[in-house]
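4.2 Preliminary Data

To establish feasibility before requesting continued support, the project team ran the inverse folding procedure on a target of 269 residues. The structure was first converted into the token representation described in Section 3, and no sequence information of any kind was made available to the design step. The complete token record follows.
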């Protein structure tokens, strides 16, 4: 499988199109990391749930991709815009990003996107995601918490492995100390793997778990708004489960990270 170390494209260090800097990076696993990118000048305002597009020039071409912001808007000016990103093992953008040291220059544009909170929405918020799709929900909760207007929330987050549960400490901390009225429901889809030894929480993909979560937590269609983010196949399946439970379509919002049916191509050879 192609690995970022094998990506030999030459990344341009300085360009007149660069307007931001990768200020910090924290690795979670070999292929998941948090990145902070800061504008040279003032931060551009955004709404929680929106995304920015970041990129660099490689072999003379600008390679850029959209990423949901995980920061609260108020924090993006100070520490930069926080992103939670998975390394995809094909030589496109992420194999370049993984090669960038902190301090490297980048291009960032945005914000864009309509995956937004409704104003003054007192329904229970059910946030469903897999992998890095949790990012916009972190921005939303951080924002509402900072604004002193938290909303009753259930976070259903699915990953293959326990060590991939991004923002677990933050969410467990909020749940424990009441820092945010959140019920955190992580689920692991490959419980039999040695990497998941000792896991005693829920198991199975989010689409197989979401029905029982609604049941257990008494989430009713008339008093719940659902946001789903990440893998398009997962989104379709979760939507179906919710439709079968009587959730009207307009109570469900979604953000697809790639077009349906597009899996990572397996490199030849
Ligand atoms: C609105 C929006 C917001 C996004 N936000 C994020 C984010 O916060 N974090 C993030 O990691 N990605 C996010 N993405 C996906 C991101 O833009 C890139 O597609 C991804 O980082 C892979 O880039 P690439 O150039 O290596 O491959 P691409 O050519 O862009 O994608 C190749 C294939 O990689 C797979 N893929 C893409 N993204 C992921 C992923 N996140 N996890 C697993 N497989 C994936 C898909 O099968 C896709 O067809 C977002 C996409 C959109 C449209």
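Position-by-position output of the design step:
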């Amino acid at each position: 499988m192609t690995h970022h170390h094998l990506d030999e494209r030459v990344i341009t260090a300085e360009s007149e199109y660069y307007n931001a800097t990768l200020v910090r990076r924290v690795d979670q696993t070999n292929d998941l990391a948090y990145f902070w990118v800061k504008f040279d000048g003032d931060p551009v305002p955004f709404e929680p749930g929106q995304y920015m597009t970041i990129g660099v020039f490689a072999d003379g071409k600008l390679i850029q991709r959209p990423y949901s912001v995980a920061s609260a808007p108020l924090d993006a000016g100070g520490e930069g815009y926080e992103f939670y990103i998975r390394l995809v093992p094909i030589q496109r953008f992420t194999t370049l990003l993984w090669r960038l040291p902190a301090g490297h220059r980048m291009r960032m544009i945005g914000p864009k996107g309509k995956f937004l909170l409704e104003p003054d929405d007192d329904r229970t918020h059910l946030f469903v995601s897999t992998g890095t799709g949790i990012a916009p929900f972190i921005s939303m909760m951080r924002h509402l918490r900072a604004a002193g207007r938290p909303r009753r929330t259930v976070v259903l987050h699915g990953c293959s492995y326990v060590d991939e549960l991004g923002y677990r400490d933050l969410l467990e901390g909020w749940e424990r100390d009441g820092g945010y009225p959140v019920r955190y429901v992580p689920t692991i889809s490959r419980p039999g793997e040695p990497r998941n030894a000792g896991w005693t929480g829920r198991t199975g993909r989010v689409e197989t778990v979401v029905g029982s979560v609604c049941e257990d937590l008494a989430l009713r269609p008339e008093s719940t708004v659902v946001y789903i983010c990440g893998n398009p196949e997962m989104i379709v399946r979760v939507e179906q489960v919710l439709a079968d439970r009587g959730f009207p379509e307009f109570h469900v919002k979604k953000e697809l990270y790639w077009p349906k049916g597009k899996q990572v191509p397996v490199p030849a050879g």
